[in-house]
Design a protein that fits this description.
Number of helices: 3
Strand content: 25-35%
Number of domains: 1
Oligomer: single chain
Bound molecules: zinc ion
Number of strands: 4
């Protein structure tokens, strides 16, 4: 039996939802700002309209961050723990896959990427 082969960046990128690829390439598109008092600071939450990632920060009344910093929550299939898509090779794989879905690499002309739904 051979050991499980680690997926390559281009394979991991090809398996991702288009919206996830766009957020990885362009950064998240934050909106839906909410703030609620959480005992010692405001819990400020924003949501990405493309991928539903959530960013939470804790902000004091004076605007400085509280000691508790918050963090990010991603949709369950956003992260690909076995492959680094944030290094140079991984980011290139993400950009390549977006171009590939636009059909520009192999000569097809498509004006937009689409609705982000996973292809069958
Ligand atoms: Zn996003």
């Amino acid at each position: 039996m051979s050991p499980a082969r680690k997926p390559q960046p281009h394979e991991a990128a090809a398996a991702l939802n288009t919206n996830y690829l766009r957020c990885r390439d362009l950064g998240h598109a934050w909106e839906d700002y909410t703030a609620e008092w959480a005992g010692e600071a405001f819990r400020v939450t924003v949501v990405c309209y493309r991928c539903d990632a959530r960013r939470t920060r804790f902000v004091q009344r004076n605007g400085f961050y509280a000691e508790k910093h918050g963090g990010y929550d991603y949709p369950k299939d956003y992260q690909v723990p076995e492959v680094n898509l944030r290094n140079t090779e991984g980011r290139a794989a993400v950009r390549f896959e977006l171009l590939n879905r636009q059909g520009v690499i192999y000569g097809k002309k498509v004006s937009h990427i689409g609705n982000g739904k996973r292809r069958a």
